[in-house]
Amino acid sequence: MALYFAVAGVRSFTPVGIVIATRYLINDIAAGIAGQTTDFLGLTGWLVALLGLMLLDASGMLLEKYTFNRLIDDLNIEITSQMMQHASKLPPARFEDPAFQDILERAQLNVALHFAEFLRGVVRTVNGLLQSLLLVGILAAIEPTILLMMAVVVPPYVVYMWRLVRERYSTEYSRAMRRRWSRYYVSQMLSHESVHEVRLLDLSQHLIERFRALMGKFRDENRSFELRRLVSGIAFVVVSTGLFFTILIRSIRRTLQGALTIGDIAVLGGAIAQLSKTTETTIEATSLVLEEVLHVSNLRTFLELETDRHAEASAALPDQLGGKLTLEDVSFTYPGAREPTLKNIYLTIAPGETVAIVGENGAGKTTLAKVMARIYESDGGRILFDDQDVGQLPLSYVHSKIAFVFQDFGRYEASAADNIAYGDIHRLLHDRSAIEQLAALLQIDDMIRAMPHGYDTHLGRQFGEYSPSGGEWQKIAIARAFARKASLLILDEPSSNLDPRSEYELFSQFRTLAEGRTTVLISHRFTTVSMASRIVVLAGGQIVEQGTHEELMSQNGHYASMYRLHQQQFIQR
Q1: For 13, which DSSP code?
Q2: Which range, of 34-38, 493-497, 499-503, averages the lowest pLDDT?
Q3: Residue 348: pLDDT band with limits 50, 70, 90
């Protein structure tokens, strides 16, 4: 960055130096022609100076481009890293909020380039102002009326360009959600996850038409802005050139009258052309700076978002967590939602106990599990591990004691071994033996070894060489959860992608794998629920029943109704 500013600073003086050297060179040539001097050597100093300045300006332009491109690369790494680091500290619930997605969209939109363009605009503005002032000073010494002309032409153009920039930014600001829609339409056409259904339902043309309509609005808005900028630029060029040309004609007359030298008029013509170009460039650079400031403010808005208030709690860390989990009057509302998803939850799970959470879709089961794991921070109430408020513990410590199989589990573009090791990355990433032992215990060792390169097979469709089935991905996700030596194990629909045989094989090992861990099971499958020592029933974000299977069936309530409906569906099959 320092080199870029230094090069740009030097280049700001070269045009003026060229003008001055040209003036004295022409005057000396004119004097030689008039017979006042015939010493050619007297011209070499100005010739050398002019050559040096021209070489300096040309090489400086190339060096400025080189340093600017390096600056963009450095800024891209630094700013994107800062965004990723800040995002890692934001409450995950924020990512569920469409308003936050708009903020994120604006912050990600070529942010490094905007910042680099801001810096380049500042440099060009300063250089342009400096060059313009020096040129105006030289020209004013020759023709004072140049000052009046500048005062008449420049301010109105600056004000108009500033208003135009503000309008363009407002338009761009309002596009955040529409840009996300445009990417959505493209992803539906190009993503392997959606392309099959899109083709089957014959939605391709419909999505393309929506995309074209949306992008057509962008195009029309851009054309309107660019047309007005073109018209205003032409108007400035016409008016300024006319005024400059008027001054040039007046100066020629003064030269013929002997008031100015030939060098003066030669410099005047070149300097006026240079000043016209420099003034327009400076105004453009100034408007660019103003526009980029607005875009960079989007990054600042994102970086100023409040991070998780409990992430760096400083309470003394317990030696270990035994696994007792207590929820006291816990509630949770998603950002932007009017009604809470969870309301006044009271629940205690004993160390080593296996509890199943059941309920209809939308009852809040997954949300409750994420609140338990402090993925989401509750709105009210307390969550305690071993009677210690988890809100007083560092988030990283709490998460290190929890293993979680998400319903929408991760499918990492990495090797099969790494996909498992990510469950406890600091311990397992370079311990292939422990990974293979865990896979064998979960009865997925043969599955992995059958892949093209065994445990070294790169998984995934984007960069990988092998794309596992949904069931294979889920088995790996389960292995990843069991890889962590956690006090609390949460399994959210752990067998949703498994066939009956795979489900049986998994849960035949379940009690051994889960031994000593407090386990929370979320499932619609009553075969999974049956492994729990206690069942908790959610409805409308509240606990409405809890007990063993037999106790809940005898109550003939919500659970019994769901179970009988499930049995009827099973019989009908």
Answers
A1: T
A2: 34-38
A3: very high
Up-side HSE of residue 280: CA atoms within 13 Å toward CB? 17
- The percent of residues in the chain predicted with pLDDT above 90, rounded, is 10
How many other CB atoms are found less than 10 A from the CB of residue 294? Answer: 18
Looking at residue 450, its pLDDT comes to 93
Question: Per-domain residue ranges for the chain?
Answer: 2-303, 325-411+486-572, 413-467
CATH architecture assignment, domain 325-411+486-572 = 3-Layer(aba) Sandwich (3.40)
Question: Any bridge partners for residue 404, and if so which?
Answer: 490
- Are 424 and 485 contacting, i.e. CB atoms less than 8 angstroms apart? yes
pTM, full prediction: 0.63
Q: What is the mean pLDDT of residues 538-546?
A: 91
Q: Which CATH class is domain 2-303?
A: mainly alpha
First to last CA, the chain: 70
Considering only CA atoms, which of 214, 234, 2 is closest in space to residue 119?
2
Provide the token pair at 472: 């294979």
Same fold, 2-303 and 325-411+486-572: no
Q: How far apart are CA 436 and CA 414, in angstroms?
A: 16
Distances (CA, A) of 175 to 101, 106, 218, 336, 488: 12, 9, 8, 20, 43
Under 8 Å CB-to-CB from 102, ≥6 apart: which residues?
176, 177, 180
The β-bridge partners of 520 are 355, 490
| Adjacent-strand bridge partners of 349 | 325
Binning the chain into helix, strand and coil, the percentages to the nearest 5 are 65, 10, 25
